[in-house]
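Bumping my old thread because nobody answered last time. Still need a sequence for this structure:
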């Protein structure tokens, strides 16, 4: 399930399919070919420019491979996402199991996700040299369904500890928020691919319930991985990179290929996302009781770069 995240961020580009490749072509002048990527190597395509055009054949070919086509707004947030209708041979069976899942099951799973997120936030704070006690103290207070909204309480403490007292999370802002937006867009695309490939419907969430959000399950499952993006943004800021540009985009995309510790050893984050999505399906089907969440700790490559 490891593939390439391909971003097209320049205007005047045309994307089409040729002999099993996605081809990027300049639309000015002689319409030169700028590059090719094998379709089978693509995990997601992120369209992050205003002057793009693309063929229906390309969108169909990506959908057949469970590779989302992501449309970004000016703030680097997801404005839309094309995902396949069918992503797994057991899809109908798993949709039925999703629909039939009980409220107690969802509450139990959400508590596990919140604990995992708090653990990873603590790991991010530890790597940044910030106090971890305010986060770790909250973990044991998480109850089924998180009725006390410990996740939100943790977020209030976490942002201040990681980025300073003046920081406010604002999806419409640039700078630090723009970097976070872009990182989350990439993470969301990879999570959507994992959800669809596991035969689950992205709208049928565990906790997120906004009626206008077609990606509720995706937003549920990406929560424990957000701190890895946050820490990379912290590192970029520390190194003097404060805006979204080609270099910072590459750094944020690379997070998905970092190894995290899992029950079977070091595993790339993109593979961890797939394992988590499959475990959700297995819980719904009664094949297991717990989610396959990554173990607490930093991605190994990220930890190595911070120690340099």
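Sorry it took so long. Here it is:
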């Amino acid at each position: 399930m490891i593939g390439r995240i391909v971003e097209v961020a320049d205007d005047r580009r045309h994307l089409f399919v040729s002999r099993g490749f996605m081809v990027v072509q300049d639309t000015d002048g002689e319409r030169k070919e700028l590059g090719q990527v094998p379709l089978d190597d693509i995990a997601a395509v992120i369209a992050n420019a205003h002057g793009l055009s693309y063929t229906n054949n390309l969108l169909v070919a990506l959908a057949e491979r469970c590779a989302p086509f992501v449309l970004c707004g000016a703030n680097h947030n997801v404005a839309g996402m094309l995902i396949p209708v069918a992503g797994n041979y057991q899809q109908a069976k798993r949709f039925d199991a999703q629909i039939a899942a009980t409220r107690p099951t969802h509450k139990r799973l959400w508590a596990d996700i919140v604990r995992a997120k708090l653990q990873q936030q603590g790991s991010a704070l530890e790597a940044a040299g910030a106090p971890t006690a305010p986060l770790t103290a909250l973990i044991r207070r998480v109850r089924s369904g998180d009725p006390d909204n410990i996740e939100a309480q943790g977020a209030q403490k976490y942002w201040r500890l990681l980025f300073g007292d003046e920081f406010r999370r604002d999806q419409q802002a640039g700078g630090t928020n723009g970097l976070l937006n872009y990182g989350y867009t990439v993470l969301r695309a990879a999570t959507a691919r994992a959800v669809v490939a596991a035969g689950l419907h992205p709208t049928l969430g565990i906790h997120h319930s906004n009626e206008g959000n077609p990606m509720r399950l995706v937003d549920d499952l990406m929560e424990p991985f957000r701190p890895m993006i946050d820490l990379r943004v912290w590192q970029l800021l520390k190194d003097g990179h404060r805006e979204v540009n080609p270099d910072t985009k590459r750094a944020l995309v690379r997070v998905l290929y970092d190894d995290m510790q899992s029950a079977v050893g070091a595993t790339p984050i993109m593979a961890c996302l797939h394992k988590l999505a499959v475990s959700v399906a297995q819980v719904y089907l009664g094949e297991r009781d717990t989610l396959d969440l990554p173990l607490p700790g930093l991605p190994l490559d990220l930890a190595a770069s911070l120690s340099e």
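The two ends are 30 Å apart (CA to CA). Let me know if any region looks off to you.
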